[in-house]
Write a structure and sequence with these properties.
Length: 382
């Protein structure tokens, strides 16, 4: 296979081949203006690698890899304080702190690679495994031992294909589903969306909408994001550190860098109460897909104004009115996202430990490390 294809790994955007964005044209998360955001404002414990895949001398594929040093993390997540959490944190610190991801650990979805031509899954499998090995060797030369290698977020048909080849012996894991809202083409306006709810969920919408009285909601310009950056980060950080599990925290300049490099394709919407920023949500326009990105809020106002639920409704309204085909809502708050119309789509990842003895225990160990979750799927439409 690698007789036909070769790959090159780059540590900086400035080194990328000129045709990179032509190959990555269908996915903003692999295009250079997004990669520049990562390069200029990646989490402090993350290092990115950009992979060019060639047929002869022609670039035909691009991919992303991320190295995470979990020793530099202030917190793995503070919401769940129990013995299982303490055990998990101990294991991560001592046996799993150097992690290599093939894919993008900052977002949910199959955004790890793109090709400009059809490539069979045997080739994709071999390329991903070879890239992982090459980067692991690079770190070994720096006296850094990679503990864990993870290949992130494949839709089911892709993971089934990869398992036919080199991924057959690698532990496949399924975490929380990706919540995706496929928007019916017949919905032309927000009224069509509200009209599709059953009475219970239409009442929920009205109640949330009424609670939001007194909030001033507006999209922020680059200059406004710059002025409010510290407050935006404070609101983001509150939500992030109260998540059940974290492997990174964004840099404080992340949102302004995003707006600077992605312009109109990145939207940050602020929620103001009595002139003070009390929440925000962000969106990325990715072709006909609307990607929800990070958000933040003031805990007190969130409870009082049903802020999070109103954000979900507002993001959905934006998606409908701007004729997106679907909205990717990601992996958190599954039940409330299902109550506004998103549905769970299972995704797989693959993971191995570089210590062969620990790796043999992966089927037993991994389920113990994943935060447990029970939730009830809601069905809001008539």
């Amino acid at each position: 296979m690698l007789d036909s294809y070769s790959f090159q790994i780059y540590a900086s955007i400035s080194e990328l081949p000129k045709t990179w964005d032509v190959v990555a044209m269908d996915n903003i998360f692999l295009q250079t203006h997004y990669l520049e955001v990562l390069e200029n404002s990646a989490p402090t414990n993350m290092q990115c690698f950009y992979i060019g895949i060639f047929e002869a001398s022609k670039l035909i594929g691009v991919a992303l890899a991320q190295y995470l040093d979990l020793n530099k993390l202030e917190s793995f997540g503070e919401r769940d304080r129990c013995m299982k959490t303490y055990v998990r944190n101990f294991i991560f610190k001592n046996f799993a702190s150097h992690v290599l991801f093939l894919g993008n650990n900052m977002i949910t979805g199959q955004n790890g690679y793109a090709f400009s031509k059809t490539i069979d899954f045997k080739c994709i499998s071999d390329l991903l495994l070879n890239c992982a090995q090459t980067i692991t060797t690079y770190f070994k030369q720096q006296q850094i031992k990679i503990h864990i290698v993870s290949f992130k977020d494949f839709y089911q048909h892709c993971s089934n294909e990869l398992k036919q080849y080199g991924f057959e012996t690698i532990y496949e894991f399924k975490t929380q589903p990706n919540m995706i809202f496929e928007l019916p083409e017949k919905w032309q306006s927000n009224d069509d969306y509200i009209g599709a709810f059953s009475k219970k969920y239409r009442d929920q919408y009205k109640r949330a909408h009424k609670k939001a009285d007194g909030l001033d909601i507006k999209e922020l310009s680059f200059n406004e994001i710059m002025v409010l950056e510290e407050r935006i980060y404070e609101l983001y950080h509150f939500v992030a550190k109260n998540a059940p599990f974290n492997t990174f925290f964004l840099a404080q300049n992340h949102f302004s860098e995003f707006k600077l490099h992605c312009g109109e394709r990145f939207k940050l919407v602020g929620y103001f109460h009595e002139g003070k920023l009390v929440g925000f949500h962000s969106l990325l326009l990715n072709g006909d897909t609307l990607e929800t990105y990070f958000l933040g809020y003031d805990e007190q106002i969130q409870k009082e104004k049903m802020l999070y639920l109103n954000m979900l409704y507002n993001m959905t309204q934006f998606g409908i009115e701007n004729r997106f085909k679907k909205i990717i809502f990601g992996r958190t708050a599954l039940e409330i996202k299902s109550s506004i119309g998103a549905e769970p789509i299972m995704m797989s990842g693959f993971i191995y430990h570089t210590n062969k003895w620990i790796n043999r225990l992966m089927p037993k160990l991994f389920p113990q490390l994943e935060p447990s979750l029970t939730w009830q799927q809601r069905h809001p439409f008539k």
